[in-house]
Amino acid sequence: MAFAQKVEWEITSGCNLHCAHCNASTGGDDLGHEQLLELARQLGELHPETVSLTGGEPTLHPLLPQIARVLSEAGVRVQIITNGTTLTASLIEELVESGVSMVWVSLDGPGPEHDALRGEVGVFERALDGIRQLKRRRVPFGILTTLVEANRSRYKDLSPLVRKLRPLYWYVWLATPT
Predict the structure, then answer these.
(1) Quick one: 119 exposed, middle or buried, by C-beta within 10 A (0-12, 13-18, 19+)?
(2) pLDDT over threshold 60, residue 178
(3) Between these two residues, 176 and 99, which has the higher pLDDT value?
C-alpha cells in the first residue's frame, strides 16, 4: 500500500480568529506535546513528500518549530498554512531555521470582505504584513482563498493585489458548508 505523498496535519484546533467558514477558533482536544512530537517522528519515518502544518492557527502552537524540525530532519518538505496575522520576523526566522520551505497565507477577498469573513477588523492588513515579512526574508509563499457565498463575487477584486505580491501559487477553493 502506497502512502500519501502530501499530508495536511492540523496540529492545533485553537485560533486567534473567528472565521465564518470554520469552527477552529473554539479550540478542542489537542494532542499533548509529547504526543505531537511522537506523531511527527512517526510521520517522518513514513517519508511523505510534503507535510503542511495547519490548524486552527499553527503559528500559535509553541511546538510548531520543533514539529517542523523533526519532519524536515527526516527529509520531509514542511509547509505552514496560516492566517498570516501572527507572522513576525523572529517567528519566520525560527520557522526557516526549523526547515519550513513554504508558507501559505489565507486572503479571502479585498480588505473589508476578508475582515468580515475572518471576524475581526484589521486582519487583512495584518495578513499583508505577514506576507511582507515573508518576502523580506525571501521565504516562498502562496496565497489561499476560500470562496463562500459572502465573497464569491469579490475574489476577482483580489487579483491585482495577488499579482503585485507575486506568490508562487494562488490557490482558490470553494468551501462547502457542513
Answers:
(1) middle
(2) no
(3) 99
Partner residues linked to 166 by β-bridges: none
Which of 71, 89, 68, 87 is closest to 136 using CA atoms?
89
Q: Give me the pLDDT at residue 153, please.
A: 85
Mean pLDDT computed over 40-53? 96
Cell of 165: 505580491
| DSSP element (H, E) containing 53 | strand 50-55
Classify residue 168 by its DSSP letter: S
Other beta carbons within 10 Å of 140: 15
Contact criterion met (CB below 8 Å) for 105 and 84: yes
User: Residues 79, 32, 146, 159: is their CA dihedral positive or negative?
Assistant: negative
Between CA 19 and CA 30 the distance in angstroms is 19
Using alpha carbons, select from 170, 83, 78, 172 the residue that is nearest to residue 130: 83
Dihedral in degrees, nearest 10, Cα atoms 62, 80, 172, 165: 100
